[in-house]
Amino acid sequence: MKYKCLICGYIYDPDHGDPDNGIEVGTAFEALPDDWVCPVCGANKDQFEEE
């Protein structure tokens, strides 16, 4: 399931992960560390909604 940042529109896709920030491909949104933030705008996880 993909998640969209409500601030900037960035889409977190587990199929791509966030390798630039140490998040491996296949990492579910729920499994992201609590301190992970949007790589584009820095929004917290609670600023994302299911896409």
What would you note in describing this structure?
- This protein has 51 residues and is mostly beta strands.
- It is 0% helix and 16% strand.
- It has strands at residues 3-5, 11-12, 48-50.
- A three-stranded antiparallel sheet has the order 2-1-3, with no helix packed on it.
- It is globular.
- It starts with a strand and ends with a strand.
- The mean pLDDT is 98.
Tell me the number of helical segments per DSSP (H or I, 4 or more residues long). 0
Distance between the termini: 7 Å
Largest sheet: 3 strands, antiparallel
Q: Helix share of residues?
A: under 10%
**Low-confidence parts:** none
Strand and helix layout:
Elements: E1 3-5, E2 11-12, E3 48-50
Antiparallel strand pairs: 1-2, 1-3
Concise overview:
The chain is mainly beta and 51 residues long. Helix content is 0%, strand content 16%.
Q: Main traits of this protein?
A:
51 residues, 3-stranded antiparallel β-sheet, 3 strands, 0% helix, mainly beta, globular
